[in-house]
């Protein structure tokens, strides 16, 4: 559970920046937490939410997001749209794009249609909370018929802010995509920084586009390893951090728990009343390395985004990377290499020359990768396009409300993503 101080700081910060954001029933929650209700913003007050807690605990992620979306659509006067992950908001809006006629019919009739992953008992309890609303259904139909650019603010004209539980790392891809299209014109606010299940910091600057977090000294015991690693590594404490430097996080969340490296690297962006303000940089475990080259996830993502920018009309939805050895014989007989699976909008196929652009970008951005490619000890990267919605299926199969890793090492999920390849 989040410290009460963290929840109060969040509410105070949200209210100061968006004075009408805490209106009763003015927040819709789109978040899947199977088996237990959870508010990612850390304040599970039922009076804030127009979405019932039970909807988020359904056994199916897709069913949970659709039911929560239906309840959110009933509330035209919504002030805050909250999601545990930016990917959850993206998937809920993808469900709106694909199924708005059915949602409009459910709104008009005050019903909840049967669907996979929605048990009948839960459907009966949730349907009892609905009432017919033909006017709102007609408004939904009219707005969706106009297209989906800026759809969020058109459906909820009083909406002030989108709150997401995680907005850094590769979740930034979804934040950027939503800002450019469905949520155009709305600020995104990521209130908390959490690692290894512990709350470590709060974002006091909700109107800034890049999240940064004030580390609170009494929420968990934190130590820091300077990066790059020293010959004789020695942890430092909060009062010994230097602005502009990067540190690996060593965490002891509660008295009696094990001290461990959290796998997170932070950059000290400054100080607020003598407490450090940090920006998450990368996760140490998320790196590609077939020959010891160790390409971090966030830097690979930048190279990929640069390559996508060279493919006219393409917009990157999501991706995962795989080291070829994990795919066995299906990766071919060439030298160890990277297998990359991407979901794109606006482009259905890529030429061989376009596919090579990613390998070229990696060679330009990482001299060690270029050296291994030149020697032939790393083979040419293989790029695969997957069908629309493939990553939503992958998140459903993952069965976790946590962000999906982009360097994938679980064989079951690898086989699933392989089955969605279109070219």
From TrEMBL:
Q: Which Pfam families does UniProt cross-reference here?
A: GH3, GH3_C, GH3_M
Query: What are this entry's molecular-function GO terms?
Result: acid-amino acid ligase activity
Instruction: Write down the superkingdom of origin.
Output: Eukaryota
The record, for InterPro entries, names: GH3 (IPR004993), GH3_C (IPR055378), GH3_M (IPR055377)
Stretches assigned to the GH3 middle domain: 214-283
Enumerate the spans annotated as GH3 C-terminal domain.
311-397
User: Record's GO cellular component, any one?
Assistant: cytoplasm
Its protein name is: GHDC protein
Organism (species): Oceanites oceanicus (Wilson's storm petrel)
């Amino acid at each position: 559970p989040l410290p009460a101080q963290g929840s109060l700081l969040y509410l105070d910060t949200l209210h100061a920046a968006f004075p009408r954001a805490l209106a009763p029933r003015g927040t819709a929650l789109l978040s899947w937490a199977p088996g237990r209700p959870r508010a990612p913003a850390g304040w599970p007050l039922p009076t804030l939410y127009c979405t019932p807690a039970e909807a988020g605990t359904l056994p199916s992620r897709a069913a949970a997001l659709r039911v929560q979306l239906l309840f959110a659509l009933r509330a035209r006067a919504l002030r805050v749209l909250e999601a545990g992950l930016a990917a959850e908001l993206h998937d809920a809006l993808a469900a709106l794009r694909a199924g708005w006629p059915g949602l409009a019919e459910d709104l008009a009739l005050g019903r909840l249609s049967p669907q996979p992953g929605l048990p009948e008992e839960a459907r009966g309890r949730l349907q009892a909370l609905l009432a017919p609303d033909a006017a709102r259904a007609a408004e939904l139909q009219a707005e969706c018929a106009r297209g989906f650019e800026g759809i969020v603010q058109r459906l909820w004209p009083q909406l002030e802010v989108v709150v997401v539980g995680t907005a850094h790392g590769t979740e930034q891809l979804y934040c950027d995509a939503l800002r450019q299209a469905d949520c155009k014109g709305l600020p995104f606010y990521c209130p908390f920084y959490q690692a290894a299940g512990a709350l470590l910091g709060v974002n006091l600057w909700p109107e800034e586009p890049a999240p940064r977090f004030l580390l609170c000294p009494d929420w968990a015991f934190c130590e820091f390893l300077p990066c790059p690693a020293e010959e004789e590594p020695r942890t430092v404490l909060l009062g010994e951090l230097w602005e502009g430097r990067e540190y690996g996080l060593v965490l002891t969340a509660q008295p009696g728990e094990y001290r461990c490296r959290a796998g997170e690297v932070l950059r000290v962006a400054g100080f607020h009343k003598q407490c450090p303000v940090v920006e998450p940089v990368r996760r140490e475990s998320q790196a590609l390395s077939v020959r010891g080259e160790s390409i971090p996830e966030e830097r690979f993502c930048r190279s990929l985004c640069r390559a996508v920018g060279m493919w006219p009309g393409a917009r990157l939805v999501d991706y995962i990377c795989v080291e070829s050895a994990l795919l066995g014989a299906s990766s071919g007989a060439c030298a160890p290499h990277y297998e990359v699976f991407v979901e794109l909008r606006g482009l259905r196929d890529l030429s061989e020359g376009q596919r090579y652009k990613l390998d070229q970008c990696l060679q330009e951005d990482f001299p060690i990768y270029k050296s291994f490619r030149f020697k032939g000890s790393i083979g040419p990267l293989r790029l695969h396009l997957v069908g629309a919605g493939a990553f939503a299926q992958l998140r459903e199969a993952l069965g976790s409300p946590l962000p999906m890793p982009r360097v994938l090492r679980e064989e079951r999920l690898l086989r699933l993503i392989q089955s969605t390849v279109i070219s």
